[in-house]
Specification:
By secondary structure, the protein is mainly α. The protein folds into two domains: 65 residues, Tetracycline Repressor, domain 2; 127 residues, Tetracycline Repressor, domain 2 (Orthogonal Bundle). It contains ten helices and no strands. Helix 6 packs across helix 8. The longest helix has 23 residues. The radius of gyration is 19 Å and the shape is globular. InterPro entries: Homeodomain-like_sf, HTH-type_TetR-like_transc_reg, HTH_TetR, Sco4008_C, Tet_transcr_reg_TetR-rel_C_sf. It comes from Streptomyces stramineus.
Length: 198
C-alpha cells in the first residue's frame, strides 16, 4: 500500500530545511539539492510549491517575519517588556537576523521581496508607537518610525554581529545580562515621558 502524501508536512520540512540552508549560506550559496535532501522531499516538488530559489528565500523570510510578529506583538505602551521579548526571540531564533543580513547583501536598497506586505507590518508598529506618543505613554524624543528602527536595531544587533558583541561586550552570562540591562535602559531613555509616566 502506497504511503499517503501530506503536502503540509512536506512544506513544513521544506521550510525548516530551507531556513537552515539560507541562514547558513545566503541566497547565492544555498543549494536546492541540500534543502531537498534535508527535507526528504523531491527537488522538483520544491520548485512546484515555491518557484525558484529566490522565491523560496522570499517565502522563508516572510514566514520568519510573520512568526516574529505573532510571537512578539508590538506593545508600545510597555517598551521595556517589548525590548525584553524581542531580545529573547532573537536569542532563540538567530536565523531570522541572519536571513535579514543575507537579504540586505543580496538586494541592498533595490526591490525587496514582498515589500508591500512588510511595509504594512512596519507601518502598524509605527502606528502603535505614534498612538502611545499621542496619549503620553511614550515620549516624543524620536519620530515613531525612527523609534521602531532604533529599538529593533538595539534588540537585534547582538545576533547580527555576535563577533562584535563578543569582542566589545564579552560573552559570559554576566556580560549578556549587563548588555540586556543597558539596551533596556537605552530604550527607557528614549521612551519614558518626562517625569516618568509608566
Amino acid at each position: 500500500m502506497a504511503a499517503v502524501r501530506n503536502p503540509e508536512a512536506t512544506k513544513a520540512r521544506i521550510f525548516a530545511a530551507a531556513t537552515a540552508e539560507f541562514a547558513a549560506h545566503g541566497i547565492a550559496g544555498a543549494r536546492i539539492d541540500r534543502i531537498a535532501r534535508e527535507a526528504k522531499a523531491n527537488k522538483q516538488l520544491i520548485y512546484a510549491y515555491f518557484g525558484d530559489k529566490a522565491a523560496l528565500f522570499a517565502h522563508v523570510l516572510e514566514r520568519a517575519l510573520v512568526e516574529l510578529a505573532a510571537s512578539v506583538p508590538t506593545e508600545a505602551e510597555d517598551p521595556d517588556d517589548y525590548v525584553d521579548r524581542l531580545m529573547d526571540y532573537h536569542q532563540t531564533h538567530p536565523e531570522l537576523m541572519r536571513l535579514l543580513l543575507w537579504e540586505g547583501l543580496e538586494y541592498g536598497t533595490g526591490p525587496i521581496p514582498m515589500e508591500e506586505e512588510r511595509r504594512a507590518r512596519y507601518a502598524a508598529k509605527t502606528a502603535a508607537f505614534a498612538a502611545a506618543q499621542e496619549d503620553g505613554t511614550v515620549a516624543k524624543v524620536l519620530p515613531p518610525q525612527d523609534l521602531v528602527f532604533v529599538i529593533s536595531a538595539m534588540a537585534g544587533w547582538a545576533m547580527v554581529a555576535p563577533q562584535f558583541t563578543k569582542l566589545l561586550v564579552g560573552d559570559t552570562d554576566e556580560d549578556k545580562a549587563r548588555l540586556r540591562a543597558s539596551v533596556r535602559e537605552a530604550a527607557r531613555l528614549l521612551t519614558e515621558p518626562e517625569g516618568g509616566g509608566r
